[in-house]
Structure formats: structure tokens, C-alpha cells
């Protein structure tokens, strides 16, 4: 599997996790004019993934700041660790394209 594919998998897992925790992206963008932008991604590849592998992605909030969230990940194939990653998101004002504080609804939804 090409190394860049992992970033897409991590994004899909993150979007699913946020939805499952009650964060509605469209409402946040529309009502609060806030969005998320990746500003840093650190990936540590341990073993390769192959086509048709059944993978599990474990993710959690590793750090929560005033305007930033860091998601930590592990990608597994059975008992084999394939990847460890950290993706840093900044909350941005969509009109000014500048950092802003996390909306209260987002902060309340993150355990």
C-alpha cells in the first residue's frame, strides 16, 4: 500500500469519530463559520499494509488546546502494529482563514 493512503484512512476515521461524538461539520461551518485544518501530521510506519488487508484504526484525542486538537492513531492488522500517527488540527475562522478558539459544542463533545 502506498504510504500516502494512510492519511486518507486517518481522515476517514477522524471524521467518523467526530460524527459519532455529535459534531456536525456542516452545522459548524454554516452556523459558527468554523472549520478544521490539518497543520501537522507525524506518521511512523512500522510494517507495510497490503491490498485486501483487514485493518483496524484506533484513535483518541491526545491533546486538546484552545484552538487545536491532536488526534493520536494506531493502525493494526490483527495483532501487528502497522502505523502510529499524530495529526494536529487547528480550528479556523472560515471567513478570515485565521485560527480561532474551538466552538463550545466541539469542546463539550470531546471526552
Q: What does this protein look like?
A:
It is elongated, with a radius of gyration of 15 Å. Strands 1, 2, 3, 4 and 5 form a 5-stranded antiparallel beta sheet that branches. It has helices at 5-20, 25-32, 104-109, and strands at residues 34-45, 56-64, 68-77, 80-93, 98-99. It is α+β, with helices and mostly antiparallel strands and 111 residues long. It has one domain (5-109): Hotdog Thioesterase (Thiol Ester Dehydrase, Chain A), CATH 3.10.129. The chain is built from 3 helices and 5 strands. It is 27% helix and 42% strand. A hairpin with a 3-residue loop joins strand 2 (56-64) and strand 3 (68-77).
Primary descriptors:
111 residues, alpha+beta, Thiol Ester Dehydrase, Chain A, 3 helices, 5 strands
How large, in whole angstroms, is the Cα Rg? 15 Å
- Structure classification: alpha+beta
Oligomer: single chain
Shape: elongated
The CATH superfamily bears the name Hotdog Thioesterase
Tell me roughly what share of residues is in helical segments.
25-40%
Distance between the termini: 33 Å
The CATH class is Alpha Beta
Largest sheet: 5 strands, antiparallel
List the domain count as a whole number.
Answer: 1
Annotated CATH architecture = Roll
Segments where pLDDT lies below 50 for 5+ residues?
Answer: none
CATH fold-level name: Thiol Ester Dehydrase, Chain A
Mean pLDDT comes to 95
**What is the chain-wise order of helices and strands?**
HHEEEEEH
Tally of helical runs: 3
How many strand units?
5
Beta percentage is 35-45%
Amino acid at each position: 500500500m502506498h504510504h500516502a493512503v494512510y492519511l486518507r484512512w486517518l481522515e476517514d476515521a477522524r471524521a467518523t469519530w467526530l460524527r459519532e461524538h455529535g459534531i456536525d461539520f456542516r452545522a459548524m461551518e454554516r452556523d459558527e463559520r468554523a472549520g478544521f485544518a490539518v497543520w501537522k501530521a507525524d506518521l511512523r510506519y512500522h510494517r507495510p499494509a497490503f491490498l485486501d488487508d483487514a485493518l483496524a484504526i484506533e484513535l483518541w484525542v491526545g491533546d486538546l488546546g484552545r484552538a487545536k486538537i491532536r488526534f493520536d492513531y494506531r493502525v493494526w492488522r490483527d495483532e501487528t502494529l502497522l502505523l502510529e500517527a499524530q495529526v494536529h488540527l487547528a480550528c479556523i475562522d472560515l471567513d478570515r482563514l485565521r485560527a480561532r478558539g474551538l466552538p463550545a459544542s466541539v469542546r463539550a463533545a470531546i471526552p
